[in-house]
TrEMBL record, chains A, B:
UniProt keyword Transferase present: no
Source organism superkingdom: Bacteria
UniProt-recorded name of the protein: Sirohydrochlorin cobaltochelatase
InterPro entries per the UniProt record, alphabetical: CbiX-like, Sirohydro_Cobaltochel/CbiX
Protein keywords: Lyase, Metal-binding
GO molecular function: lyase activity; metal ion binding
């Protein structure tokens, strides 16, 4: 079973953490039934990345893509999240865990900027 | 003339600041010739928000939408950027300056997560 774990920094503000759950639900709806989509936070809030990976494995995930929900390829997205994910994945040698690129520069983001500008 | 000023936090890393310029260029291409699109940084890098607004006015902008390039509606996007933009706008009473919502939760972001997950 394919799975996506959407990971942001994590905040002390509950509403900010909840927003990632909303995005994960949107992703799940678009991805369709063949993909489990969950979210986790790098720090400051739960579920943590290891908790998220453990839960996905319990749900039957055999292939997990961790997607850093960060705009820029900074230290968190390119170093901290991959390191934590790799450590957590070592507990599940039968599961293929990889880390995707952060959101970066993409036409979909440019289109969203225009949506917000026109609201 | 309508204009968009895309504003992020600003970084000490040049590549991170340059990336916002790339997004602004994408936005400009999609927006078409009727809209000037420029970028600025809230702090740590130039152009600053006041410099960005001054430059747009010099280019003939009469209506400026400042779009916070932030995923979440945190303090920077909802308080700091609007305050700085408002102070900068007070120098140009003939120009209509408003601040848009940050990127927030949107289907376009969910679709981008899937793009990154599948790469």
């Amino acid at each position: 079973m394919r799975a996506i774990l959407l990971v942001d920094h994590g905040s002390r503000v509950d509403a900010a953490n909840a927003q990632l759950g909303d995005v994960a639900q949107l992703v799940a709806r678009i991805a369709g039934d063949g993909t489990i989509v969950r979210h986790a936070h790098m720090e400051l809030a739960t579920p943590s990345i290891p908790e998220g990976i453990d839960a996905l494995v319990r749900e039957g995930a055999t292939e997990i893509v961790v997607v850093p929900y960060f705009l820029a390829p900074g230290r968190h997205a390119t170093s901290d999240v991959p390191r934590i994910a790799s450590e957590a994945a070592s507990k599940h040698p039968a599961v293929n865990v990889r880390v995707a690129a952060p959101l970066g520069v993409h036409e979909l983001l440019a289109r969203l900027v225009l949506v917000r500008a026109r609201e």
